[in-house]
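Instructor's aside before we start: the two examples that follow are unrelated to each other. I chose them only because their records fit on one page, so don't look for a connection. First example below.
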Amino acid sequence: MDSPVSDLAGQLRAARRVTVIAGAGLSAASGVPTFRGPGGLWRDFRPEELATAEAFERNPRLVWEWYDWRRQLISACRPNRAHEVLAAWNRRFARFALVTQNVDGLDERAGTTNVLRFHGSIWELSCFKRCEKAPESWRDDTAPFPELPPRCPHCGGLARPGVVWFGEAIDPGILQASREALACDVCLVVGTSAVVYPAAGLVLEAARLGAFTAEINPEPTEISGELDLAIAGKAEDVLDEVERLLSL
C-alpha cells in the first residue's frame, strides 16, 4: 500500500522543477534555538520586543547582546540530515529553489546554492544609517564580537544585523524571485507553522499555478487541508526517508 512518503517520492521522481519553503523546523535537529514557543524568551524579553528598528534605536547594545548570543549558539550548530537532503536535491533537479524563513545559514553550509532568504541572514551586517560608503550588507562571521554594538567599518556608525525586523518589508528582489520559483512541478513546505505571511501564502499560490503541494511538519497547520499531501513528522526523518526512496 502506498504511503504519503512514497506518494511524495513518486511526485518528486517525475519532477524537474522543485521549490521548498522552509521554516524553523528544518533547523530544529541542529539545535538552533526557536524564535517562538516555550524557549522563545531571552532575559525576560520576547523576540518581538527586540527585533524592531525602534528597539534598536532605544537600546542598540541590548539588541546586539541578543543577536550576539544567537550567533554564538548557531556557530556551534551543524547542518542536520534535512539540510543534507535538500542540498542533494539542489544538485539532482534541473531547477531547484529553497525559500527559507531561517537566518542561520545552515542551508549554504550543507551545500545548497539557490537559497532565497526571506528574512535575511544573521551572518550579514549593514549600516543602520545606510551610509553612502557602505554596501547594502556585508558578511561577518565574528562570534562573539569583541565590542558591542559593532560599528560600520565605512562611517563608524552603528551596524545592525542583516535580518528583516518586524515592521520591515521583505527585500523586493527576494520576494520576486520567490514568486517566480512557484512555477514548479512540486512545492514542498517543511518545518513551518504557516502563520507568517507573506511566506505562508507561497505554497497556496504554487497550487493555483498547478504545482503538486505537500507539507512536512510534526503538527497539522492552518493550510494542511488545502494541500495535496500532509505528512506528520520531523523534517530530518521524513526527508531522509523520501531521499532513500528516490535513490532506489
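Example two begins here.
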Amino acid sequence: MMKQACMLLCLAVCSGAICAEQTDSCAGLEGPGLTQCRSNQQTLQQQERLEQQLQQQQERQNQLDKQQREVQQQQLEVQQQLESMRLQNESLRKQLERQSADQAARPVVTDAKSAAAKSAEIKSWRADNPWYGSDYTRTQFAVRYVKQLQQEHPDLAGRELLDALSAKVDQTFGATH
C-alpha cells in the first residue's frame, strides 16, 4: 500500500510540474534567464493592452468622424433652408414693392373730365338719397361707414361705392323710398 501511495504521489507531482510548464513559459528557468523571460511576458501583455486601447480609440474616432459628418450634413441643410428663406423673403419684398408702386401709380382723378363725371355721379346719387345731409344720424353713419367700406372693398369706386353705401344705410335704418 505504501508503494501505491508513493507512486500516486510521484504521479501527482509530475503532472503538476507538466501543467505548470505548459501554463508558464518561464518555468524551469532560473536567474537572469527567468528575469528576462518574465520581463518579456510583461512587455507582451502591455503590447496586447496597448493594441486593445488603440483599437478602442480607433473605434471611438470612427464614431466621432461619423457624428461630425452628420453634423456637417445638418449644417448644410440648415444653410440651404436659410438661403431658401432669404430668397423667399426677397421675392416677397419685391412683390410688396411692386404692389406699393402699383397703388401709388393708380391714377388720381385730376383731369377736369374725370372730375366732372365724378361730380355728376355724386349729384345723381344725392338725388336718389335725399336723406344725405338732411338726416344727421344717417349722414354720420354713411360718413363713417364709407371708410370701412373702402378698406373692405378697395375695388369699389364711384357710383358702385355710393350704391353699396346706400344699401348699407337702408339695411341699417330701413329704406326711405
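The two ends are 147 Å apart (CA to CA).
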